Amino acid sequence: MNLNRRDVLRAGMGIALLPLVPSCGGGDKAQYQASTGKILTSKIPLPKPFSVPLPIPPVLKPTRTDGTTDYYEIIQKRATAEIIPGRQTEIWGYNGLFPGPTIVSRSGRRTRVTHRNELPVPVAVHLHGGKTPAEHDGYPIDLIMPAAGMSGHGSHVMGGRVSNLQKEYDYPVDQPAATLWYHDHRMDFTGPAVWRGLAGFHIVHDDVSDALPLPKGDHDVPLMILDRAFAEDGSMAYPSISRDLNGAAGVTDSFTDGVMGDVILVNGAPWPVMEVDNTRYRFRILNASNARRYQLALDPARTQFVQVGSDAGLLGAPVRHSRIPIAPAERFDVVIDFSAYPVGSEVTLLNTFGDNGTGQIMRFRVTRQARDESSIPARLADFERLSPASATATRKLNFTLGADGDQMAWAINGKVFDPNRADVQSRLGTVERWQIITDQHHPLHIHMAHFQVLSRANESRVRPTDAGWKDTMDIPDNELVEVLVKFTGYQGRYVFHCHNLEHEDMGMMGNLDVT
Ligand code: C2O
Ligand code: CU
Ligand code: CU
After folding, report:
1. Ligand 2 centre distance from Cα of residue 113 (Å)
2. DSSP label at 185?
3. Where do the domains of the chain lie, and which CATH numbers do they carry?
4. Are strands 305-310 and 313-321 parallel, antiparallel or unpaired?
5. Is-cis flag, bond preceding 58, omega within 30?
């Protein structure tokens, strides 16, 4: 057979894909400013906001360590979780948890994670923001096949670096302190896999970050924000018509703009509440939603977010924001100083891009007076601003609808993803200027190579929230942005894509060959 993998997958689907009908800026879009997506509505009564305590994902313990390396094991499996109080929800979880356990690495020490696949579908694990050799980056057809099912012919038709049952991912962690995350990255099926729960934090520390007087310990809190919807049986059903050979749900029909839910979860709990001292806290905020974009704000706004880190590491100096727009997969490392609020106050983290339920994210209850040993220094880490003069190539990339055979799909320069096609070649050690043009809201993500935002055509300047090294950026509709990408790390085939997961699954992804 001489079909590429996408054709094989589609040939194996029980129901053919429908022609893609782009939404024409209807109610959803007007209401949910610049999130490209459609809301799936829950069929069960939703819990009262701010009644469930904020969970903190457990930190994974290494199974062993030696002089250079920490070794971990994760089993990907089905489990049930009580997400909505009194209801059981089936999830797909790393170690059966949603979010997955947090991995904590030290810059310069290797981290090796053996993932065992006990799910009914193939998986690929990507460390988002990691500088990882290509064979360990979770390339979309580098799959770990499940125990039963398609492993025999799967490895035959798919062509990637296919492993059976388990794979050891080797991360050199030769990069500075940052808040990374890991999630599923299987070609055409990332949206449903992450929706069911395959996402976790991977935090990197280094000597520079350890030496800073920022809040530490239980005052350094990861917050994974995402939206979901719950079906009558309590499940997080993914709206889908397509099936792969194992019957797993894939890309969507009327939800091809992106799947959004009506329940906001933080660390897997609906609109949770956290009791805090009246001191500074550091929050590592991740938007792990498939498609929803948020704008974070505090209510009452007696203080600001003080940003200390971006996607890929610490900033040179702190930046204050009263609002933070955050696109899928972006991270903001911020300090909130609750001494601005009297003990007894309630402070709500809002999403000013949402309404009613989705307009709120979580609540902080300032319950205790405490001494604060932390501070925010004026200088955080060395930061090298890239100059456009250093760019050795300029590339234009259109993130717009394109033709996929006789169907329309999300595409880059008119082409949907093909693992066998060369798209962009970049030389290790160089800096390039990338110009991204969008039709709708498309968050750009580049694997392995980090970048800095240079310009936004529709905004008079780069946003304050664009500061620092980025691996993902928020790009609204009908925009032209420029970024400077620095290719340090490893050679090999990587990808860049829209991080709206439904767009990615439809094909808005390209190969990046670092040579
Ligand atoms: Cu977070 Cu290619 O992904
Ligand atoms: Cu990534
Ligand atoms: Cu997109």
Report:
1. 17
2. -
3. 64-211 (2.60.40.420), 388-514 (2.60.40.420)
4. antiparallel
5. no
Q: How far apart are CA 465 and CA 468, in angstroms?
A: 9
Q: What is the pLDDT of residues 36-45, one digit of tens each?
A: 888 999 999 9
Q: Is the pTM of this model over 0.85?
A: yes
317's enclosing H/E stretch is: strand 313-321
Looking at the chain, the number of H-run helices and the number of E-run strands are 6, 35
Dihedral angle over CA of 514, 133, 211, 371, nearest 10: 110
- Paired with 273 in beta bridges are 53, 363
Cβ atoms < 10 Å from Cβ of 367:
16
Q: Which atom of ligand 1 is nearest to the CA of 495?
A: 2
Number of neighbouring beta carbons within 10 Å of residue 348: 18
Lowest mean pLDDT among 247-251, 420-424, 466-470: 247-251
Taking CB atoms and a 6 Å cutoff, what residues make up the pocket around ligand 1? 126, 128, 183, 185, 329, 445, 447, 495, 497, 499
Looking at ligand 1, which atom is closest to the CA of residue 183? 1
Per the structure block, which two tokens stand in for 257?
Answer: 């703009």
In DSSP terms, 320 is beta-bridged to 306
The tens digit of pLDDT for each residue in 95-142 reads 999 999 999 999 999 999 999 999 999 999 999 999 999 999 999 999
Residues bordering ligand 3, an ion, CB closer than 5 Å: 442, 498, 500, 503
Gyration radius of the chain over CA positions: 21
pLDDT, tens only, 411-435: 999 999 999 999 999 999 999 999 9
Statement: residue 379 has pLDDT above 50:
yes
Give residues with Cβ within 8 angstroms of 472, minimum separation 6: 128, 311, 327, 328, 329, 330, 331, 443, 444, 445, 499
Which two three-digit tokens encode residue 230?
């719950």
Which ligand ends up closest to the CA of 504? Answer: 3
Q: How far is the CA of 501 from the centre of ligand 1 (A)?
A: 9
Is 324 strand, coil or helix? strand
Helix (H, G, I), strand (E, B) or coil at 195: helix
Q: What pLDDT score was predicted for residue 26?
A: 36
| Per-residue CA distances from 512 to 186, 304, 437, 493 (Å) | 17, 38, 18, 6
Q: Which two tokens stand for residue 392?
A: 């050795």
CA distances from 141 to 1, 332, 409, 413, 494 (A): 18, 30, 20, 22, 11
